[in-house]
Write a structure and sequence with these properties.
Radius of gyration of chain B: 13 Å
Oligomer: heterodimer
Radius of gyration of chain A: 13 Å
Shape of chain A: globular
Number of strands of chain A: 11
Structural class of chain A: mainly beta
Helix content of chain A: under 10%
Distance between the termini of chain A: 34 Å
Shape of chain B: globular
């Protein structure tokens, strides 16, 4: 009965490959997020969707493309992976706007070789 | 852009002692939240304090907010080894905003 789940948990891949990370939440929330956490633990928002509509699109290379097939899912596709993409990617969800708690998934540890 | 700055960056205390972490921010906020992250895990929401509140309690946690100084503190009383984690503050700017901006975190080590 995991609230926010992500797959895979670990992803090791070569530079130049394309990969996807999947996220699902069973909390009935209408807003979902992707964050990137670097090696210094700094957490940076990448994207947010509310009711399947993109509402936050930070300065992220266009090699990163989010897709929300429905309110419970938000996937992240990354093209032409680069060494600097190595990080932990967290999915999160919330009910509504920034005055509500966000619930985080366990993270996907991406290592680009 | 980064909003919250936690202080100290790292804190090491004995079990049973109190731990205090501070967060400063730069712009107006609607609310401030504290999260905990255990090593290798996702963030867990601890407590939310709104801009019109000054203090909030939840179990062994006490959060204060001073909007005039643009700062907040998180106090963990009677710490336990299980409190060892990184603690992040996050600010929300308004009711119409979906974005939380996180600080760099304080790494707390509680020594048994």
């Amino acid at each position: 009965d995991t609230a926010v789940s992500q797959t895979p948990k670990y992803l090791v891949t070569q530079m130049g490959n394309d990969k996807s990370i999947k996220c699902e939440q069973n909390l009935g929330h209408d807003t979902m997020y992707w964050y990137k956490q670097d090696s210094k633990k700094f957490l940076k928002i990448m994207f947010s969707y509310n009711n399947k509509e993109l509402i936050i699109n930070e300065t992220v290379p266009n090699r990163f493309s989010p897709k929300s097939p429905d309110k419970a899912h938000l996937n992240l596709h990354i093209n032409s992976l680069e060494l600097g993409d190595s990080a932990v990617y967290f999915c999160a969800s919330s009910r509504g706007t920034s005055d509500r708690a966000q619930y985080f998934g366990p993270g996907t540890r991406l290592l680009v070789l | 852009s980064q909003q919250g700055e936690e202080d100290p960056q790292a804190l090491s205390i004995q079990e049973g002692e109190n731990a205090t972490m501070n967060c400063s921010y730069k712009t107006s906020i609607n609310n401030l939240q504290w999260y905990r992250q255990n090593s290798g895990r996702g963030l867990v929401h601890l407590i939310l304090i709104r801009s019109n509140e000054r203090e909030k309690h939840s179990g062994r946690l006490r959060v204060t907010l001073d909007t005039s100084k643009k700062s907040s503190s998180l106090l963990i009383t009677a710490s336990r080894a299980a409190d060892t984690a990184s603690y992040f503050c996050a600010t929300g700017s308004g009711a119409g905003s979906y974005q939380l901006t996180f600080g760099k975190g304080t790494k707390l080590s509680v020594i048994p």
